[in-house]
Amino acid sequence: MWSFLNPMFLWAAGAAIVPLVLHLMQRRRTVRLPFSTIRFLKMAQKRSANRIRMENFLLWLLRTLLLLAIAAAFAAPVLRTTQFRRLAGMAHRDVALVLDTSYSMRYETGQCRVWETVQDAAAAVLRGLQSGDRACVFLADEHPAALMEKPNADLALVERLIKDRQPNAGSSQLHEAVATACRALEDSKHREREVYILTDGQALPWKGFQNGADASGTNRTAAASLWDPSAIDRNVAFFALLAGPLAPENVWPFQVEIEPVLLLSNTTANVTAHLGRTGPGQSLAVSLLVDDVEVSRRTAVIDANGTRAVGFALPALAPGVHAARIETPADGLAVDDRFHFLIRVRQALPTLCVGSSEDAFFLRTALHPARQAEDGSAKRIDPSEVATIALREYSTVFLLNALPLPGQAMLALEDFVRGGGTLVVFPGDAASPANYADWTILPAKPDVVAERMQDDRVRQLRLVAGQDPLFAGFALPPGATPTLSIRRHLAWKQLEPEARAVVVAGNDLPFLASRYVGKGRVLLCSVSADRRWSTLPTTAFFLPLVHQIVQFGAGLAREPPYLWTSPSLLLSEVVPDAKESDRFLTPRGEDLPVRPVRKEARVLLEADDVDEPGAYLRLRGAGGKEPVFAVNLRREESNLEPVDAAALPALTGLRELRVTRESEQLQRAIDEHRRGRPLTEACFWIALVLAVAEVLLANRISRRRDAAAGTVHVEASGRVSGGAGG
Fold first, then answer.
1. Residue 56 has pLDDT above 80, yes or no
2. Half-sphere exposure at residue 223, Cβ-oriented, CA atoms within 13 angstroms
């Protein structure tokens, strides 16, 4: 249906009568001349009369349409397509708002954040609805969430919910949220339906639509399989607002590496920070802070839309846990300018020997030949003390003829291994094969203590798994041959499914079996660590093997220097010695919600809403605080590479998707859709075409009449000739 934005100009359409008046005024008068015969003139008139009338009619029509087109252009006609649907009783409208809530929406442009621009645009959409219209809201997070699941007529409530919302700490998936919004409008087929996608213009959240736009494709990814544009009702109108800047700039640290893996007191280390950038190349200063004190600063040049690794020298630190971070200069997205991590420094090599002094003699001597580890680097305890020791302080625990152990001690050792520790079991005369039956983490269940015959005792050790990380960089002293005499050993029928033999004695005798359990590893040796069962402690193989195990355990037991934000965190895996009575604080100093959960017949602690970047603390006695883990935002969202707005209709498969860059453009697109398409420009183009056609036709007619007047000649005698000269 038609309407006019400036109907006052329609009076100008009356000028269309002017060409008619002019044509009537220009009609030639009939002149009577006496001729002897008019037979030839009547024949000429008969041949051209029809053509002349048609040409005059076309000329009048073109001039009339030209004036009408000019008048219509100034009256601003609008084609209201939605009025046809209103005639069918579909006057009300249901809209679905899809809001990008990733942390890139915190980008600041001038004095305003992109998120605030999106909130204002959503409010403008809601305020443009009429009484009886309804709205629902969906949040495009890593998984879509409904802020208002079903269309609701309380538009003020919907607006308040949007105003109270803030961006999350993760990334976003627009295709899942848009698909959910379309499903929410499936029951609104008798209403006008509109879907609004409000985001910042980043390319990342649109990647989920890839391969989904081609519904006929057979190799669609799992993510895109949720998006099928062919299933979308064509009567649903789609709008997209890309509220972010056209050329955003951002620098972010996304990874930190510390070398060496195990830090001891009074030793230096190296910290490598990896940086990324969106925007043109830039030179900037990067800082390393430890315990809120800047210890190093470097200048780095990062290429346009590239990455760069920056190294820092870490000075010697006191034993303990230190909170550290990498800082880059402030930019539009301040939330990712810091990367938090922990530095754990130990006083000495964290090794625990469980057994009597006699059983531990050779092993402790191998670890520290001079003083038998009097500095505490290889502490020894009796088996009865295992349950009272904080095993988390150690990376490797040796059981030296320590079985049998109480059930509580066994559980403590299992938790130690699952949390990332290395447990090495050396048998002895105190334990029988039955004492191994209750263990659930051993590589094998020994069933007999075998005695070797005199002529079958000498065996040569051989690595079965040379590529095993346990033996990375392993080398025997020059000229040493790993040969020993075995008098007694543990024997088992088969290994556990996840276990394997890493060292054998001869061709058929398992010597060292290994099994990964949780984050840690268990090693079971078939001979004791003293000379009762074999000559192992006196061979050249014993010392490098023990040191290799300790170094491997130190690296394996290393707690990760940082974690990623998460809605929930199994605290018992990150802090194995955590107790329900412990109190944990967020980086802002607020209490971290912690609750017990039961998993695999064990009671563990789980923390909720670990979504704030920074170092999390545990309160100790007398008000002391200890950093226990550091959390960072996942950095995929920091890449602000903009999307090509012109490619979005083809990318999404929504051919009628209206993409805008500003809120004002969005409102104009909404008005065009709801009120109609303005045809002013089309009217001016039509007027131009008509004017050109009128000029061409008028010139053609004029030239033809001039030519006819010059070719027809009437002589004095009344004779009509075809040429001027007769």
1. no
2. 15
> What H or E segment, with its residue span, contains residue 348?
none
Smallest CA-to-CA distance from 544 within 515, 503, 575 is with 503
Residue 555 and residue 87: Cα distance in Å, rounded?
Answer: 74
Residues 6+ apart with CB under 8 A from 590: none
Residue 243: its pLDDT value, please?
93
Element (H, E) at 498: none
Token pair of 318 as six digits: 């006191």
- Specify whether the CB–CB gap between 109 and 138 falls below 8 A: no
Q: What local confidence, expressed as pLDDT, does residue 677 receive?
A: 60
* ω into 427 cis (within 30 of 0): no
d(CA 2, CA 648): 31
pLDDT-wise least confident of 31-35, 132-136, 158-162, 635-639 = 31-35
392 φ, ψ to 5°? Answer: -65, -20
Peptide bond into 404 cis (omega under 30): yes
Answer whether residue 252 is part of any domain.
no
Q: Residue 182 in contact with residue 96, Cβ under 8 Å? A: yes
- Integer Cα distance of 349 and 357 in angstroms: 19
The domain containing residue 340 runs over which residues?
266-346
Beta-bridge partners for 282: 302
Residue 259 lies in a domain: no
User: Rounded to the nearest 5 degrees, what angle is found at the Cα of 698, between the Cα atoms of 693 and 700?
Assistant: 95
Could you tell me the sign of the dihedral formed by the alpha carbons of 334, 335, 337, 342, in that order? Answer: positive
Beta strands 77-79 and 93-100 are unpaired
Buried-exposed string 87-116: b where 16+ CB fall within 10 A, e elsewhere: eeebbbbbbbbbbbbbbbbbbbeeeebbbb
pLDDT at 195: 95
Same domain, 364 and 339: no
519 within domain boundaries: yes
Q: What is the CATH number for 606? A: 2.60.40
The pLDDT-based confidence of 3 (bands split at 50, 70, 90) is: low
Q: Is residue 85 part of a domain?
A: no
Contact 123, 104 (CB under 8 A): no
- My answer on whether 657 and 684 are in the same domain is no
Residues 373 and 412 in one domain: yes
Number of domains in the chain: 5
Q: How far apart are CA 73 and CA 60, in angstroms?
A: 20
- 543 and 663 together in one domain: no
Q: What does pTM read for this prediction?
A: 0.68
3-state DSSP call for residue 617? strand
Is residue 142 located within the same domain as residue 243?
Answer: yes
CA dist 491 → 4, 70, 525 (Å): 97, 103, 10
- DSSP-assigned states of every residue in 9-33: GGGGGGGGHHHHHHHHHTPPPP---
CATH number of the domain residue 449 falls in? 3.40.50.880
